[in-house]
Amino acid sequence: MKPQIITNSDRKPAFAVIPYDEYRALMERLEWLEDLRDNKAFEEKLVRGEEEVPAEVVERLVEGESPVKVWREHRGLTQEDLEEQVGLSGSYLSQIESGKREGTVRVYAALASTLSVAVDDLVAAGDDEWDTSGGGDGRCPEE
Known about the structure:
2 strands
C-alpha cells in the first residue's frame, strides 16, 4: 500500500489517502486489536477477583427490578437455594423480592455475602435511609 500524502502550506504531511478497501481492512484490524486489549483487561480483572457485570443485569437493575432477585438469578440460584443458604423461611425472600416486606440489615448482610455483592448492591435506588448505626430495630425505614 502506497498512500497519497497531502501536505499543508508548510509542506508538512497533513493527510494520507488510501484506497477505501485498504481503509476498511485497517479498521477491521484495529477493531480486532481493541477486542484483544479489552479481553486481556477482562482476564486481568478476573485474576484479581473483580467482576464484570453483564449489560442485562445492569439494565434490569436500572429498570427498578428487585436487586435481590436480579443478583440471585444472575448467580443461578432459585429462591429455595438462596433461602436455604441464608437460613430464611419460605415466604420471606419472596416478600423481599416483591417489595412486600423490608429485610433487616442482618438479612441483607447475609444475602449480600451469599450472593457475593455489597449490601448496597441489594438496596433498591431510593432506599438510602438505612439505619446502620445500631440504633432502632435495624430495619429499613418504611416509605
